Amino acid sequence: QLLLPLVTSGATVLMAFATFILAKYTLKLARETKEGIEVAQETLMQTQRHHVENLRPFCQIAFSEAKWHPFGEHFVMEVPDAFGDDGKPTAYRKEIRLFGTISNAGLGPAIEIVVYLAAGKYILTRNIAVMPILGAGDHERVAVQITEEDNFKVWQNQTWARVGDIKNTIAQTTEVVLEYKDAFGNAFRTVHP
Predict the structure, then answer these.
(1) What is the pLDDT of residues 95-153, one digit of tens each?
(2) Residue 190: which of 180, 143, 110 has the closest Cα?
(3) What is the rounded CA–CA span in Å between residue 162 and residue 167?
(4) What would the pLDDT profile of 73-90 be if each residue is shown by its tens digit?
(5) Cβ-based neighbour number of residue 27 at 10 Å
(6) Using CA atoms, how far apart are residues 76 and 72, in angstroms rounded to an integer?
């Protein structure tokens, strides 16, 4: 009978020690599991970034009719805008025609391809849609029309005025800019000085 309390307290101490060891080992396993999850998440993110990088498009324009200027010899055209009863033009509008071939030298498709004219950091025209999609390694001939309506408006003398007529836009243009997206929605830009 004297031994029973001693054995019971010894067993309690032994159980407490064993519980402490198991708790410490469980904590160690939890930390290692957390580190394993973090490594797996980082590996997954790197794999996704690698996948996105591998499917990046790279588009550029090879201008045709571009002896001195990317818009060709006759880049400002007068196009009939209104016609009389006899079918003859009564009014004309001026427009720029951008001729060339767009090619995608990247490994992924280019989506929502647009072009605009710029002068350094200043954008002169709105985005003009060129084509909805261009596959990797593909090329397509284009003839983009840019009209005076495509020029941006600025607030000037209490009214909205166009940046300039189409000839002034040509004179100010230093860059033709292509913008497009990849299959993941990331935007890209190719600047043609």
Answers:
(1) 777 888 999 999 999 999 999 988 877 788 888 899 999 999 999 998 888 877 777 76
(2) 180
(3) 12
(4) 556 667 788 888 998 888
(5) 10
(6) 9
Q: What is the pTM of this model?
A: 0.66
The residue whose two tokens read 């292509």 is 178
Residue whose structure tokens are 């067993």: 11
Cα gap 115→128, rounded to integer Å: 5
List the structure tokens of 152.
């941006």
